Amino acid sequence: MKKRNQALFEKCVKYLYSFINLERDTAAIKSSEYKLDCMRFLLKRFGNPQQGFKVIHIAGSKAKGSTACFLAAGLRAAGKHTGMYTSPHVSSILERIVINGEPVAIDVFTGLCGELQQVLGRIPKADFPGGKQPSFFELMTLLAWLAFKRQGCEYVILETGLGGRLDATNIVNPAAVVLTPIEMEHEAILGNTLEKIAAEKCGIIKRNIPVFCGFQNRAVKKVVREYAAAHNAALYFLDEAIERLVVSDSVEHTEFSLVMAGDKERNFQLLLPGAFQAENASLAFLVLHTLYPELPDDVIKQGFSTAFLPARMEVLNKNPLVIIDGAHTPGSVSRAVSSFSHLAGQRGILLFAAVTGKKIEEMAAILAPQFLHIIISTPGSFRRSDPREVYKAFYRLNKQTTLEKNPARALKKALSLSGKVVPVLATGSLYFAAELRRLFSVALPS
Questions:
Q1: pLDDT (0 to 100) of residue 429
Q2: 0.90 surpassed by pTM
Q3: How far is it, in rounded angstroms, from Cα 24 to Cα 9?
Q4: In what order do the strands lie in the sheet with 254-260?
């Protein structure tokens, strides 16, 4: 039965990947064709399964996944039947659809995928809006809604894929909107200024629906204020809602004390390492405390203490210290290296790989001076990359930089250089972190 389920699952995954995958090649996205018509069409064909949930909708450039995880964990601890939809995945496509803290069951997923395939097979291509078939992400979003509906979820934590205004997830009437930190990204699609990108993210704001905003650049805050006012939406900025945030993190966990404006001190402990996770958890607490004041603090704290996402400052080994993180923007790698330096207590070895289109020069300027040795590699084969160009950017700033395109050999080289003493950080891409996570157990020297 297990083998048969696995074979069916692999067949489903192959089917889904047969559709255009804009996660694989964002350059294929044309702004003029980036619309919600197809998503609406699909949802209507399946009876609008997105309706009837209490949805918290999240957009931003970084920290979406962690914030979503904290929100879902807090609600789950309170006994709420909760679904969570995030992307991309680390080890399995099932991770994108989480129900009560667990990836959707393989038989549920394959059953829904079979239904999907049957329905789509009966729809002529010409009937789809614009005569184009749906994308992989649109189909995954549809499967998520179907799974949440079939499994009886009450609450859904919903993360946008790219942008917000025209993202496939933006066909909901949410209970709240959350904006995590926004920075320059995907300029060819979202706009070439921070204000334009923020405006795209703010496209998930709905009339009379509260908006919760994490720590932001001043220009971003101005855009958010304008959008919230235009939609008569109550607006809560994290930096204005708290009086004090004190963080203490270690390899084992992160502890922080939070004082909301005019309120008492609350203390939290998180599984996820990294001081910045305290900010993400604080934003999640602000949302839950404001929306559902009846939820006891202890329940939310207990939920937060169980929240976990792979490849987010994930400790793979302690001797030597090996940490992987999916950071892929200048802001996120800055936070990652700051946390790594604090946890490691010394300069270490950097394993870095990034997909084409990322801000390599900016990330190199942040990272290169901080490490004794740097090994540039390939972030798997899912997305296009140019390791040699990445190598050149880092080598200009740190001559102790080498190029090893094969991720397995790059990891072994890093562990060899470490000598079980020097700490290792691997970052630059969630795809790279996922690949190293898979490889790590066989690469660790005995």
A1: 92
A2: yes
A3: 21
A4: 242-249, 254-260, 265-270
Q: Please report the DSSP string for 173-206 in residue order.
A: --SEEEE----S--HHHH-SSHHHHHHHHGGG--
- Whether the CB-CB separation of 88 and 208 falls below 8 Å is answered with no
Token duo for residue 186: 């995907």
Report whether 332 contacts 359 (CB < 8 A).
no
Taking alpha carbons only, the member of 350, 430, 425, 418 closest to residue 390 is 350
Spell 397-425 as b/e; 16+ CB within 10 A means b.
ebeebebbeebbebbbbbbebbeeebbbb
pLDDT at residue 428 in the model: 96
Tell me the per-residue pLDDT of 56-89, one tens digit each, with 9 for 90 and over.
999 999 899 999 999 999 999 999 999 999 998 9
Token representation of residue 42: 């699909």
User: Would you call 159 helix, strand, or coil by DSSP?
Assistant: strand
Q: What is the pLDDT of residue 271?
A: 92
Domain 2-306 fold is UDP-N-acetylmuramoyl-L-alanine:D-glutamate ligase (3.40.1190)
Are the C-beta atoms of residues 76 and 82 closer than 8 Å to each other?
yes
Q: 314-443 is classed in which CATH architecture?
A: Alpha-Beta Complex (3.90)
Q: Supply φ then ψ for residue 406, to 5 degrees.
A: -80, 115
**For the chain, counts of helices (H) and of strands (E):** 16, 17
Rounded to a whole number of angstroms, the distance between the first and last alpha carbons of the chain is: 36
- Domain parsing of the chain, residue ranges: 2-306, 314-443
